[in-house]
Every structure is written in structure tokens, then in C-alpha cells.
Amino acid sequence: MNSYISTVLQEVKRRSQDETLFLQAVEEVLESITPVVEKHKEFQDAAILERIVEPERQIIFRVPWQDDKGIMHVNRGMRVQFNSALGPYKGGLRFHPSVRLDTIKFLGFEQIFKNSLTGLMMGGGKGGSDFDPKGKSDAEVMRFCQSFMTELCKHIDADTDVPAGDIGVGGREIGYMFGQYKRLRNTFHGVLTGKGLTYGGSLARTEATGYGVVYFCQEMLKDKKTSFEGKTVVISGSGNVAIYAVEKATQLGAKVVALSDSSGYIYDKDGIDLDLVKRLKEVERKRISEYVKERKSAIYKEGCKDIWTIKCDIALPCATQNELDGDAAKTLVKNGCMYVAEGANMPSTPEAIAVFISSKISYAPGKASNAGGVATSGLEMSQNSQRLSWTFDEVDNKLHQIMINIHNSAKNAAEEYGTPGNLVNGANIAGFKKVATAMLAHGLI
Ligand code: NDP
Fold first, then answer.
1. Are residues 60 and 50 in the same domain?
2. Average of pLDDT values for 402-407?
3. Residues 253 and 340 reside in one and the same domain
4. Quick check: is 223 in a domain?
5. C-alpha 137 – ligand 1 centre gap (Å)
6. Is there a single domain that holds both residue 434 and residue 341?
7. Are both 45 and 148 inside the same structural domain?
8. Which domain range does residue 99 map to?
9. Does residue 389 lie within any of the structural domains?
10. CB of 243 within 8 A of CB of 265?
């Protein structure tokens, strides 16, 4: 590793020694961008790397709320405003008991490069809480969201920082938070994305991340002169991203045979019944294990990691970080899997990525292949600013074109910097160059 990069990395490790996810994300990006930093000495002279790994601002706050029995609870809320070189901070909010500052920092750091790749004017940020919406009543979720927004509203605005959803934050939570923001600030503007269609949301935003992953993977398939038609696909997770990845892959002629949640996975040899999954997950908020009670062709197995033992042509990890390790990657490759495109953020461990790269299968890192969600959030912001709504097809066509562009940028950057086919390097380089160039232009801030 280049000595400048290695010094920066050592300093990040010293400052953030307990933040293992953040360090994992930083290490991958810094390693990938070595050739760019060597070519552009001006980045080193302007301390771009030292600045890009340090958030511009971190806000941590108390979120007190009362449950239905009147018992009081306190959760921790966070927003990391990581980098605003390309536009207002933009990135989702995650509500999950596992959320720590480390989680939000890794997601915020990834978001900088992802947002850059979309070609839209968006900086990188992320937020969330260790609150668990699972098993809570609507009234409890509403009280939590209102309390969360009571503090967050002091730090965000349509031109400053525009949060969206992520794990545990869907349309219901965005609605409650939007309502509270509007009430406290007395303004109606696009301060959140992923809104409902009746109050400023964009058509195709719900579908965007899942569709986007499949559009990206379609480009990888085209490079190998093939398509989704007739392919067997395994998708982890059964939330927003997974559901719409199933929808688009199925529309393109593939058969999706598995889905999971954090408890286990289902295998349906006849292909996933998407209407059933949507009802169970989106309407009834049930566990994925319920699927097999209504579908005789399917089986359920405890333990989500074994989903990667199912034979498939294409794997789309769409659940959470580090869900696919080195052994799972080896099993996938051994079973003939030729394409992996990430819907989740950093779902493959560094060991898994090394397996994919060395076995020369087509592998797309999340910051490139799952960028369709934030890209469509960017399109929602544009519509809100114009006070206009575009049709589903208009948004979907723009999303599709953005995913093609991201694929091409990553592919071309990988070639230009000497690692053809390595989309990890390509995505990191293409994303980084634009942010670094803007930071250079802005002076030392
Ligand atoms: P949802 O909350 O809708 O769904 C998350 C899914 O992942 C659920 O099935 C959940 O299962 C599963 N999951 C969560 N934690 C774990 C775990 N520790 N182990 C195994 N499975 C787990 O979230 P999304 O679909 O929105 O997000 C999924 C991934 O996609 C995340 O990594 C997110 O950051 C990323 N992403 C999302 C975008 C979006 O637009 N929503 C945009 C870009 C990336 P369970 O119900 O058991 O918790």
C-alpha cells in the first residue's frame, strides 16, 4: 500500500479502533483508490483523504418515548453528516437494535461514493437509532418517530440534509417523521424522501433499490452476452430491497427460488410467489417462515446464512452487512453461481469479495448496484423542488439509465486504472474522483 494511504489508514484506526464496520469500509475504499492518489498528487497536498474519512458533523441525541402501557423508554438517535462536497447530505435512517455510531459511520461513508456515482448533486450522510420497530404498535412507532424528529428537525432541511428510509424505516415511519417535521417547522417541503404518494413522494421510489440492483446486474449479464431469462436467482432478506428485486428479476424471465429474514430462509422450487410475500411482509408484517404455511412447494429452514448453499446462477444479497462470508462465497462459486450483485450495503465480507474477484465471477459492490434507491430519492427531490410529479415510467426510465451509467462508469474506471472487470475498484475510483475534485475546488474546509 502507498505510504500516504497507509498513514491515513493508521490514523483512522487509531481514532476509531472500536468501529470495525467503519474501518472495513474505509480500508476497502482507500486500497481501491491507490492508483488515483498516486496519479493526482494534488489530492495528497490538499489532505483530501484525511478530510474524506472524517465526518463533517456527528449529531447524537436522546430519544425518549412512551409505550402503550405508559412505560418510558430512552433510545439513542444519530445523524452523521459525512460529506457535503456534492450537495445536501443524503442517506437513509436505520431503526434496528444493532445500530451503533459505527454502523451509521460506515453507512454514511459508503453513501458519499454511492451518491457521487449517481451523477446527481447529493452529499453523503446517514442516521438512525437502536430502536426496534418490530413488535411495536403503530401508536408506539408514531410516538418514537415524533420524538426522534423533534430533535432531528433542528439539523435537517430540504437544502441541508434530506434523510430517507433504510432497515426498519419504511413508508409508515417516514410519514410520521414528515408530519412531525412539518408541524414543528411550519414548512411543507421535501425534507425526507420515500414519502407517500399523496404528500410529495415519487412513483417508483418504493421499487427503486430492488429494481436498480436488477438493472445493474442486467448490464453485467449483457457483458457476458446473456440475460436474466431462465436463470435461477437467490435473494437474501425479505424487506423492501429484496421484494422489488424479486419483482424485476421475475419480470425479466428469471426464477427466484429463495428469500430470508434474520431467523431463517425459504426455498420454493417453483419460484417465489411474490403476491404472497408482499401480503405477509408489507401488509401483515409477519415473518418469512409464514410463507410455507400457505405454499406447499416451499420449505423453511432456520438460520439465514445457509441460504447461500442453494444452487443458483445469480445471487443478490439484500439483507444486511457481512451476511455473506468467505465460506458462503466459496460455496456459491462451487455451485456454479456466476453473478453477485449487492442490494444491501456491504453484505459481503472482505474474504467473500476476495473469493469473488479471484474466481473471476461478475461481482458488483453495493455502493454501485444498490444506488438506485438514493438516485430515485434524488429524483423525488427534483420533483418536490419543481412542485411536479412525474409518471411511473418517467421515473423508472431515468432510474434504468442511471444504473446503466453507474455500471459503465465503474467498468470504465476499472479499465482505466489497470484492473479491468474489478467493479469494486471501478466504483470506488469513479465515486471518489468526483468528490475529491469538488473538495479541491472548495478549498480547505
Ligand atoms: P427492510 O427493513 O425492509 O428489510 C431488511 C431485511 O433484511 C429483512 O428481511 C430483515 O429481516 C433482514 N435483516 C436485517 N438484519 C438482518 C440480520 N442481521 N441478519 C439477517 N437478515 C437481516 O430493509 P431494506 O430492504 O430497506 O434494506 C436492506 C438492505 O439494503 C440494507 O443493507 C440497506 O442498508 C440496504 N439499502 C436499502 C435501500 C432502500 O432504499 N431501502 C437503499 C440502498 C441500500 P428481519 O425482519 O428478520 O430483521
1. no
2. 98
3. yes
4. yes
5. 20
6. no
7. no
8. 56-188
9. no
10. no
| Tens-place pLDDT, residues 214-242 | 999 999 999 999 999 999 999 999 999 99
Number of other CB atoms surrounding residue 297 within 10 Å: 11
* Domain containing residue 100: CATH number: 3.40.50.10860
Q: What is the overall mean pLDDT for the chain?
A: 98
Pocket of ligand 1 (CB under 6 A): 165-168, 209, 237-242, 261-263, 304, 318-320, 323, 343-345, 370, 373
Determine the Cα–Cα distance for residues 9 and 19; give it in Å rounded to an integer: 13
Nearest residue CA, atom 5 of ligand 1? 239
Distances (CA, A) of 328 to 340, 347, 348: 12, 12, 9
Do the beta carbons of residue 318 and residue 197 sit within 8 Å?
Answer: no
pTM here is 0.97
Q: Give, using CA atoms, the residue closest to atom 15 of ligand 1.
A: 320
Mean pLDDT of 105-133: 98
Cβ distance 184 to 148 under 8 Å?
Answer: no
127 shares its domain with 168: yes
Which atom from ligand 1 is nearest to the alpha carbon of 205?
Answer: 40
Percent of the chain beyond pLDDT 70? 100
- Place 1 in a pLDDT band, splitting at 50, 70 and 90: confident
The CB density around residue 259, as the number of other CB atoms within 10 Å, is 30
Grid cell listed for 404: 446503466
Task: Specify if 307 maps to a domain.
Answer: yes
Residue 110 CA to ligand 1 centre (angstroms): 16
Residues 143 and 17 in one domain: no
